[in-house]
Amino acid sequence: MMQGEEKRMGKIIAVANQKGGVGKTTTSINLAAGLGYAGRKVLLVDFDPQGNATNGCGTNKAGFDPKHTTYNLLMGEDRIKDDVVHLHMPPIDIIPATIDLSGADVEMASTDYTVGREHLLKNKLDEVKDQYHYIIIDCPPSLGLLNTNALTAADSVMIPVQCEYFALEGLTQLLSTIRLVQKLWNPHLSIEGVLLTMFDVRTKLSVEVQQEVRKYFKEKVYRTYIPRNVRLSEAPSRGMSIFEYDTRSEGAKAYAGLCKEVMAANEKGAH
Fold first, then answer.
1. Looking at residue 3, what is its pLDDT?
2. What would the pLDDT profile of 18-41 be if each residue is shown by its tens digit?
3. Average pLDDT value for residue range 10-19
4. What is each CA distance from 74 to 67, 201, 206, in whole angstroms?
5. What separation in angstroms does the CA of 211 have from each of 58, 159, 196?
6. Is residue 135 within 8 Å of 10, Cβ to Cβ?
7. Which of 67, 91, 244, 258 shows its CA 20 to 30 Å from the CA of 116?
8. pLDDT at 21
9. Which of 239, 235, 162 has the alpha carbon at shortest distance from 203?
10. First to last CA, the chain
11. Alpha-carbon torsion 171, 155, 264, 96, what sign?
12. What confidence score (pLDDT) does residue 10 get?
């Protein structure tokens, strides 16, 4: 357990990869949900204009005001308390996203926001950082100002990597962006870990990609890998994390394992 409910850790983890279809949102939802079920207080920030994390953990069923989303948080006067939606299953808080967020990149590029535009999200999250054990940001699959905001606000980056040909090639841009953010806005940003997704133990390719990624990132690669799993791909369309949809599935076991690794890495010395 943590050192008392009054003392939060406030670790902000951005889940990022500019390539689509690598399991980024699935990881954001199920990491947040798994940590929530493990008794941690978790905020999930949907920072992807597609809003897949919002839909995928049932926020639409819980109901939210489309005037109070990550767009309003970033570009307006809203504070976290104005936009947060409290979910029960999974037991997490979420700030939802709608397609409006896609306009934020363009607006931030305008002259009004040239100073401090990279810190807009950080400034808002800093107000509530100590109220949560973990804040998970589901980043958009692109490398614009939204991603820069997420990486500037984050303590660390979790990178999902799909076990496919050229898995590492797509990471070059992301790693360059991370280095740029470290240099200009967030010197303390680190790589939380690299997560192998859509792993198929029966294929030679998955095994080869795993070896290649481990050779490149070494101990930064999680022992847990996320298998190709039908239940995992079905769950978001039902507005559920894998832990509500099918807790016995291989996907649920894998994400539970990931959550244990994340907690072990971040809660050393916690009781």
1. 43
2. 888 888 999 999 999 999 999 999
3. 93
4. 12, 42, 39
5. 36, 16, 11
6. yes
7. 67
8. 82
9. 162
10. 5
11. negative
12. 87
Q: Which residues contact 243 (CB under 8 A, 6 or more apart)?
A: 30, 33, 34, 37, 90, 252, 255, 256
- Encoded tokens for 72: 């309003």
Burial 43-75 (b: 16+ CB within 10 A, else e): bbbbbbbbbbbbbbbbbeebebeeebbbbbbbb
Q: Which two tokens stand for residue 107?
A: 């607006």
CA gap 234, 222 in Å, rounded? 24
The angle subtended at Cα 180 by Cα 16 and Cα 26, nearest 5°, is: 0
Using one digit for the tens of pLDDT, what is the confidence trace for 160-180?
A: 999 888 778 778 889 999 999
Residue 153 has pLDDT above 60, yes or no: yes
Question: How would DSSP label each residue in the chain?
Answer: --S-TT----EEEEE--SSSSSSHHHHHHHHHHHHHHTT--EEEEE--TT-HHHHHTTHHHH---TTSSHHHHHHSS--HHHH-EE-SSS--EEE---GGGHHHHHHHHSGGGTTTGGGHHHHHHHTTGGG-SEEEEE--SS-SHHHHHHHHH-SEEEEEEESSTTTTTTHHHHHHHHHHHHHHT-TT-EEEEEEEESB-TT-HHHHHHHHHHHHHHGGGB-S--PBP-HHHHHGGGGT--HHHH-TTSHHHHHHHHHHHHHHHHH-TT--
Strand order in the sheet with 42-46: 85-86, 93-95, 42-46, 134-138, 11-15, 156-162, 190-197
> Which amino acid appears at position 95 of this protein?
I
